[in-house]
Fold this sequence. Notes:
Distance between the termini: 51 Å
Radius of gyration: 23 Å
Shape: globular
Number of strands: 10
Structural class: alpha+beta
Largest sheet: 5 strands, mixed
Mean pLDDT: 85
Low-confidence stretches: 1-14, 91-109
Strand content: 5-15%
Order of helices and strands: HHHHHHHEEHHHHHHHEEHEEEEEE
Number of helices: 15
Amino acid sequence: MWLLLVLLQAAVLPAQLCEAPGEAAAAVRELSARLLGLAGDPARDPDPSVYLALRLAGDHDLREEERYLARLRDAFQRRYGRSLQAAGQLHGHPQWDTASTEHNTNAEAEWPETGRLALYLLGLRATCPLPEPGPQRLLVTWLKYYLEEDWAGSRRHGQPLTSYYQYSLGVLALCVHRKRVREEVIHRLLAAEHHGRFRHTGSSTVDTEAVAALAFTCLERERLVGSRLAAELQAARRRLRRRMVEAQDPDGFFGNVYSTPWAMQVFIATNACRTQPAYGRAMAALLENLDAFTTAATMAQVLPVLHGRSYLDIASMRCQEEPDTLTPVSAEPPAEMLGNMTVRLVVECPEPRCPQHRLYDRTVSAPSGASLLDVLRAAAMQGPPDFTFVTQDTSQGPFLSRVLGMEARQQQRSYWQLLTAPGTSLQMGVADYRPHDGETLILRLSEW
């Protein structure tokens, strides 16, 4: 009787939408049009996550999507158009398709591109009509190879050379293509979830946990594993989703505004978006903060959930007539602001690597409305003391790689963390964040 009452109560509860409500449709469509405008800029390197967002949207510009896919193919064909043997990747390596977990320690070896290749494979699966399977099989082989090359150490005590985020994306992409994943690879992620290794520098990595949850859900749903392993995946996925609900902040975000869309994909993929109140609060928070999504990478991150879609929807996409009604909107340059601002720039390095700890602490004058990258350039012009820095171009914009001669090395799991005082991590890149007058900015060499 009690169970019947619970079921009746659930039946009369109003179901919420997984996509943004109708009154937000115009804003969502405008965001899609802005992303389409950025995608049409030939000066920008093609990004598979942008293509994914365009394909998962409700409205399309099919010709522009075809052009963008052609650019992606050109970029990936140069690197992955040959077999592993032809590329010389197996020379001196153990057989990567066996249970061996050895890895190449040659400093000259190419760094695994696990996450980017995974996103490209997901994008190909979302293409209509589906591409010829031959080239995709070659890409799948490369991705399986990367999942072995990306791992250092044993299953129980190892870790990815890139990140658990990229590693989870690799597993997810193989699953969406209905390719079996070695149980050893799956157990690596399960062990990381069980032992809390998705967390680093003392804080929760929501986006990593979310991508892992999506991979677990896909493996279970596509029945690519046995019943015993499927039960482990289901339990891990439920734990991850429960932690997200428990960690939701009063503003409605899971972690921060940029990691929230990843968490929301988990609720969509597990059919909890219509009944979980935390999802509705997160959607409301996103819609109130759409102006935070200003770059192609961040727009691509938020648009799928605004359309009520997750990356798992790619596996069930059917080619049918799609509305070809979207028109690109060109990005407008930021409005000119008069006057200058003054910010304090601090560079920190932990002991014992840096006994001095604080390497630089000085006020910097820059034009009002300038980006953090502009502030760093202004600091380099001021001197003394001399301030130097180096950035690397990536698909998501400039990446800070060296400050005051000190390099962040992926092999050493170090990076330059961007913070605003007293210790709030910035969730935007150096070219995207715009400091305000009187703010204290911290560049901190950190480990992950």
